[in-house]
Design a protein that fits this description.
Blueprint lengths: L6 H7 L6 H12 L2 H8 L16 H11 L1
Length: 69
């Protein structure tokens, strides 16, 4: 049998402490002009449609670098 949530539990469930990483990435999103940065990189990034393994989208690579760097 499940217990009913109290108002205090329901209020706290939606909130949690933001990690330093989340705070840093949120600040970077505001500071870095991502569209301008991607426009600078795009001419040097491999193009799709050529034989061989297809490259990931540039936006995906930038997102992964942001998360894992």
């Amino acid at each position: 049998m499940t217990m009913q949530l109290t108002f205090g539990d329901a209020e706290y469930n939606g909130k949690r402490k933001r990690t330093r990483r989340e705070v840093f990435l949120a600040e970077m999103d505001q500071v870095v002009p991502w569209n301008d940065l991607l426009a600078l990189i795009k001419p040097h990034y491999p193009k799709s449609g050529q034989p061989g393994r297809q490259p990931y989208r540039l936006e995906t690579i930038a997102f992964c670098l942001q998360l894992f760097a």
